[in-house]
Specification:
The structure is a single chain. The chain is an alpha+beta fold. It is built from 13 helices and 12 strands.
Length: 414
């Protein structure tokens, strides 16, 4: 770093914006798992990925989300994970409703996507190998077709069923929808409906605030072919799931949410969260920007924030005059958020099967991927290697990228 005299430093301090580290190319450093770049105006630009849950007995709360108050995150492990997925949308950890009221509101509002984060595996023991029982077992499998959130693996003596809390909660709804389309073959689905009621009752112990008793645990139809249903540990990458906290730009989030198979995604809402002082994320390519470009960038961010505040200030009182303050705030933020850039920071709880995580990391960590999503992918790989499924990623290596902007991910032969 070149030496600087006091006059030079004073001159820099009079600039509308300047780097707090006096270099044209800011140097990143690793701080508690976050790639940090120093800049002014409270814009600590960084991407961060942290492990939240790997199917074990503990949910890790990311420090970036804040700390819960005494009546939050008080449920079971599954309920804590679902609550975190809910609270990241509203930036509400440490404020607002208690656990029970929060989860009750999720059910009342029908925002059930947050239930998809919690996935478990069950073993369905078929009771007999006679022809009639095998036919009924086949009918169960037919009844699982087209249901979202299910991974089914036939094994000796029955089959393993991996499913999420939303699948359980909405089982009856999908049975009805499938029966309508099945027409005269709808009776084939009766036994899968019975199985769903049995599964529903078993899930109460894991999600008592979300899955409520229907009073239909016993069912002669399913009892005639199913000997037992038990909880089992996930064995394969399609059964194993992990949840990560991701802090990145909204531009990167638009790419991440395209991975819709065997994933669950909850993202910070710009309608519910005030964004006029939020950080913006520095793309790795900006290390090549000279000071004039950085000054222009800073002014553009301030202009975007000013437009956001101005639109919100004008819209909110007008809408409040004909509705209520809460809806007026949401509508005004909705109108104002369009002036904020793709580099605006966002936060996500992103859950996926280990098999899907590997597909994402190989694709998004390659040299052909955008540098920021590649950077996030490398951080995600590092986080997943701290999980109990670390061995599943042994064939992925972090290597220098061709463009030199970030590291990249390469699949190797182990």
């Amino acid at each position: 770093m070149a030496s600087l005299d006091i006059a030079t430093v004073a001159g820099m301090m009079r600039l509308p914006i300047c780097w707090s580290v006096v270099m044209q190319t800011p140097v990143p450093r690793l701080v508690a798992g976050a790639l940090v770049f120093w800049s002014t105006m409270g814009m600590l630009e960084h991407t961060t990925v942290r492990l939240i849950w790997d199917g074990g007995p503990t949910v890790n709360v990311p420090e970036e989300m804040g700390a819960p108050h005494s009546e939050q995150l008080t449920g079971t492990v599954g309920e804590q994970l679902i609550e975190l997925g809910t609270r990241i949308c509203y930036d509400s950890l440490g404020t607002g409703r208690a656990t029970k009221e929060t989860l009750s509101h999720v059910l009342d509002a029908g925002h059930l996507s947050v239930l998809e984060h919690f996935t478990q595996t069950m073993f369905i023991h078929l009771g007999s190998t006679d022809i009639e029982s095998l036919v009924r077992g086949l009918n169960i499998l037919i009844g699982l077709w087209n249901r979202p959130g299910i991974w089914c693996r036939p094994v000796e003596g029955g089959f393993r069923l991996t499913l999420n809390a939303r699948t359980v909660r909405e089982w009856a709804n999908w049975t009805t929808a499938l029966s309508v389309e099945a027409g005269t073959l709808a009776p084939l689905l009766d036994i899968s409906g019975s199985l769903g009621r049995r599964i529903h009752e078993l899930w109460i112990e894991r999600l008592p605030l979300i899955i409520h008793s229907s009073g239909a645990a016993e069912d002669e139809l399913v009892d005639s072919c199913v000997q037992d249903i038990e909880w089992v540990e996930p064995e394969t990458p399609n059964e194993q799931w992990a949840s990560l906290f991701v802090k990145c730009s909204r531009g990167v989030s638009h790419e991440l949410v395209r991975h819709g198979d065997f994933t669950a995604i909850s993202q910070r809402s710009t309608r519910f969260v005030e964004e006029d002082e939020s950080s913006w994320i520095r793309h790795p390519g900006m290390r090549h920007c000279k000071q004039p470009a950085m000054d222009i960038t800073a002014k553009a961010i301030e202009a975007a924030r000013a437009a956001y505040r101005a639109v919100k200030t004008d819209v909110e009182p007008e809408v409040a005059a004909s509705t209520n303050k809460r809806d007026a705030r949401k509508q005004s933020r909705g109108a104002a958020r369009g002036f904020l850039g793709n580099a605006l920071e966002t936060q996500i709880v992103f859950s996926a099967s280990i098999a899907q995580w590997k597909r994402i990391l190989i694709m998004r960590g390659s040299d052909h991927a955008d540098a920021e999503i590649r950077q996030v992918s490398v951080q995600a790989l590092e986080a997943l290697r701290t999980s109990r499924y670390a061995a599943q990623f042994a064939d992925l290596a972090v290597v220098p990228s061709l463009d030199g902007l970030t590291s990249a991910i390469e699949q190797t032969t182990v």
